[in-house]
Amino acid sequence: MRENTVISRRTLLAGTAATALTAAAGTAANARPATTTRPAWAAPFATADGFAGTDLLGQNGTTGGVGGPVVTVRDTEAFLDYCDRNEPYVIQVDGIMRFSSKRALRSNKTVIGLPGAEINGGGLDVYRRQNVIIRNLRFTGADDDAISIQQSSHHIWIDHCDLGNGADGLVDIVRGADLVTVSWCHFHDHSKTALLGHSDSNAGPDTGRLRTTFHHNYFDGTAQRHPRVRFGEPIHVYNNYFRDNALYGVASTENAGVLVEHNHFQNVAHPIYSGYDESGPGRVVERDNVYVGSGAPQTLGTVVEPRTYYAYTPDNASSVPSLVTAGAGVGRI
Asked: Domain named Pectate lyase: which ranges (predicted)?
């Protein structure tokens, strides 16, 4: 089944039979008419950059569900069913998916939101998986993490999402996860934004892993963890806009190695920490950042250059506020 198939409830999730049944489903009282075209703006075939784009750990970059069927889901049961399947899928989300707790998202998936798409109340759990793309989705009110990447998962790309108002982390990358890119996302109305390395006692699984790129994200009034890092190296934080972050911007702890470059910090009293709370100091290099109404950054030691893994061309830090506010978040790909 290679065509774009609209699924309205679990009873229609029967492989090739789904195509034939879609027309009948469209006549149901609680279903909207089936569609057979995919909006051009939602094409899922863009390629990840940063660490998610690297050819490491036996994976040729991050392509998500490319090559699998394209399905459009309009209710929560169908959405969670496709997320939990083992086969590759491009899952287009049409509407608001309401559920609680973190739910499994398996390997070789692209989850991409159509206009107005939202995950409300719960989150996605990428657990021992690889090759996953999450794009153009709003996450709000998660009762745990909004997106959790853990247990040696790798090649994960989070792009153009809107995340806020959660109970715990918005994007947490822990327990040996690796090769992740978080790009062009809008984080707001939240405290603990992004954690890399879940505890000071997890040095073994996390050291030399957790390699993550954060670029062109808007940390909009969020309080802390943009990100907070333990053990991982290199963590690459570039071309992000930090605005009114009450506690701090970036924290490198427990001998992590973080490069912070070409970012714009506005009204951030503590833009960069080495060490935080009970966690020991981490190595951190800063260069070519802009600090407006902000304090002085802390730095320590040297960090492995991300250029040893991938090529990139940073934008000038002075242009970051206009670029990021115009381009980050949903509806902008």
From this structure: 66-271
Q: What is the pLDDT of residue 206?
A: 96
Q: Report the residue count for the chain.
A: 333
Start-to-end CA distance of the chain, whole Å, equals 26
Rounded to an integer, the average pLDDT of 297-315 is 98
User: 333: pLDDT confidence band, cut at 50, 70 and 90?
Assistant: confident
Integer Cα distance of 47 and 226 in angstroms: 24
Is 225 catalytic? The answer is yes
For the cut 70, the answer to whether the pLDDT of residue 262 exceeds it is yes
For CA atoms 58, 61, 62, 66, the dihedral sign is negative
Residue 258: inside a domain, yes or no?
yes
**Strand 147-150 to 171-173 pairing:** parallel
Domain that holds residue 247: 98-327
Q: Is the pLDDT of residue 17 over 50?
A: no
- The pTM of the full predicted model, rounded to 2 decimals, is 0.90
- Residue 90 domain-assigned? no
Tell me the mean pLDDT in the region 306-321: 98
CB atoms within 10 A of CB 42: 19
Q: Do residues 49 and 181 lie in contact, with contact meaning Cβ atoms separated by under 8 Å?
A: yes
The enclosing domain of 220 has a CATH number of 2.160.20.10
